[in-house]
From TrEMBL:
Keywords: DNA-binding, Isomerase, Transcription, Transcription regulation. PANTHER family: GLUCOKINASE, RPIR-FAMILY TRANSCRIPTIONAL REGULATOR. SUPFAM superfamilies: Homeodomain-like (SSF46689), SIS domain (SSF53697). It comes from the Bacteria. This is Sugar isomerase (SIS).
Length: 285
């Protein structure tokens, strides 16, 4: 048994289980197998439920977690919940029976959409749309899984107005991209959870250029909203493995639709110009 208990910032449960696995008694090894099969379950199960899943007693569960260096099952569960909240793929999802997966996924997507869209403030929405319609330039930015959302909004806005492009072009450093921003420009920064280190510093530097910033993010964000002009909080967490981005995508689509409306005849004229050019180049089927 370890003589020191785990602190909040120490090794996660999955690593501890792997390290201890070879020396575990049979009962505790069954607990380990349950957890390694789906570490995210620990954030949601009670000690009694875990004991039943492994076919052991509650006392065996208690001994197992003490062997791993935790003071109790509850301390390990709190750590798993923290990791789940950060979006760690090891700690998201649950062992849902196959018969329920499609219906559960459908319900979770509906929940994500409703939770995200009902939080939008109509006044804030109008301000953002006005900025999208009138800003001299719009630059978009998104890292990791947020990147495809940044590409989506770039493509949508780029069909109805000029001067829309990614903030970071291939071969550029972050500094070179940020330096191109100017006062009055609009940066659409998408930063859903599991953001890279230094994310807040990038938002801060864009703000220092005098540009307005629309930050599309989730409830785990800290500090960066202090430097943004507007922040929209999207729900991303569900019971399934992998975050849901349907809410964020719906927000971006809504902004594109409303911006097209705000641009009026100018937007229609530019869209027609783009379509005519596509036809001359025979780009689409």
């Amino acid at each position: 048994m370890p003589t020191k208990t785990a602190d909040a910032g120490s090794a996660p449960i999955s690593r501890r289980v792997h390290e201890a696995y070879g020396s575990l008694p049979d009962g505790e090894r069954r607990i380990a197998d349950v957890l390694l099969g789906n570490p995210g379950e620990l954030a949601m199960l009670t000690a009694t439920e875990l004991a039943a899943a492994a076919g052991v007693s509650n006392a065996t569960v208690s001994r197992f977690f003490r062997r791993l260096g935790y003071e109790s099952f509850e301390q390990a569960k709190r750590q798993a919940r923290r990791l789940r909240e950060t979006g760690s793929p090891l700690y998201t999802g649950s062992a849902t029976p196959a018969s329920k997966r499609i219906s559960d996924l459908l319900q979770s997507e509906v929940t994500v959409l409703e939770s995200t869209l009902t939080r939008l403030n109509p006044v804030t929405l109008r301000e953002i749309v006005e900025a999208m319609a009138t800003a001299p330039r719009i630059r978009t930015l998104g890292y990791r899984n947020s990147h495809f959302l940044a590409q989506y909004v770039t493509a949508q806005l780029g069909q109805i107005r000029r001067a829309v492009s990614p903030l970071l072009l291939p071969g550029q450093t972050q500094a070179e991209g940020i330096a191109l921003m100017d006062k009055g420009d609009l940066a659409v920064v998408i930063g859903l959870r599991r953001r890279p280190a230094g994310f807040t510093s990038v938002v801060q530097e864009i703000s220092r250029r005098g540009a307005r910033i629309l930050l599309i993010t989730d409830k785990t964000i800290r500090e960066a909203p202090a430097h943004a002009t507007w922040t929209i909080d999207c729900q991303v967490e569900t019971a399934q493995y992998s975050d849901a981005y349907s809410g964020a995508l719906a927000v971006l689509r809504l902004l594109a639709v409303e911006t097209r409306r705000a641009l009026g005849e100018a937007g229609q004229t530019y869209l027609e110009e783009v379509e005519a050019l596509r036809e001359r180049l025979q780009e689409l089927e």
